[in-house]
Specification:
Blueprint: E1 37-39, E2 42-53, E3 56-63, E4 68-75, H1 77-80, H2 83-97, E5 107-112, E6 118-123, H3 130-137, H4 142-161, E7 164-165, E8 174-177, E9 180-183, E10 190-191, H5 193-198
Antiparallel strand pairs: 1-2, 2-3, 3-4, 4-6, 5-6, 7-10, 8-9
């Protein structure tokens, strides 16, 4: 949920990567002139946007030292300045970083930039979503669908074992890779007491 208590509805199901929903205020150090920006150990170009939502934007970035592309979620200034929401964002990032599972999109890093903007750096996946795959290929063979759903179920079980319930499982939140499916978009996740104990708010 957002700070005003409203749900964060899906606005762009065709986005290649979407961690939030409707257009919101500019996030972090996003520069409209397209210059390369830096946050933490990452560089990114604002026009290379992968998705946007009420709480911020997701852009393609790069860790230059590791030579690795990442997806960076930048929290909008409105929500960064909301202490309660910022603490929830940080706490969830720490929890999700513990979910090391082959069928969950990895969280690499997170924190605040020099301007105070909050961010999470995640695994970048080129393959698109399950929704996009079905739009492109049409109805998928039943064995293929069963395989994907089994992988999603494994991801949900792994999250549940850490006290995290996803609450927003749908085709646009399942990323496709050469090896199968990866669950993403935990921004609406419910956190059980066990999860809160693993990643206490500071």
């Amino acid at each position: 949920e957002t700070p005003d208590g409203s749900a964060d509805p899906v606005s762009n199901p065709n986005a290649r990567w979407r961690l939030a929903s409707t257009p919101g205020p500019t996030a972090g150090a996003v520069d409209s002139d397209g210059a390369v920006c830096r946050i933490g150990n990452y560089t990114y170009s604002p026009p290379d946007q992968l998705g946007h939502g009420r709480t911020g934007v997701v852009v393609r970035g790069r860790h230059e030292f590791l030579n690795r592309d990442v997806a960076i979620k930048l929290l909008s200034r409105e929500y960064t300045d909301n202490e309660a929401f910022r603490r929830k964002f940080e706490r969830e990032a720490r929890i999700l970083a513990k979910l090391d599972h082959p069928n969950i999109v990895k969280v690499y890093d997170g924190g605040q930039g020099s301007d105070g903007a909050c961010y999470i750096a995640m695994e970048y996946i080129e393959g698109g979503t399950l929704l996009q795959l079905t739009k492109k290929e049409g109805r998928l063979p039943a064995p293929q669908v069963a395989d994907y759903m089994a992988q999603v179920a494994e991801a949900l079980l792994a999250a549940y074992d850490h006290g995290v319930r996803h609450r927003d499982v749908k085709p646009e939140n399942v990323m496709m890779t050469p090896s199968g499916a990866k669950l993403t978009d935990f921004n609406l996740a419910a956190l059980e007491e066990t999860a809160l104990q693993e990643a206490p708010s500071t």
